[in-house]
Amino acid sequence: MAASMPCQDCVTGTLHGGTPSGKVITLHGLPAYVAEPPAGSPEGIVVIIPDAFGWELPNTRVLADSYAKKGNFRVYVPDFMDGHSVTPDLLTSMDKVMADDQGILGKILPGVRAASNFLPFMYYNRLAITKPRVFNFFIALRDNEAANLPVGTAGFCWGGKLVTLLCHDSEKAPNGKSLVDAGFTAHPSGLTLPDDVDSVRKPLSIANGTLDFQLTMPGVKQVQEIFEKKEKGRYEIVLYEGAKHGFAVRGNPKVERELKQGLEAEDQAVVWFTKWLGTSA
Question: What's the predicted TM-score (pTM) here?
Answer without folding.
Answer: 0.89
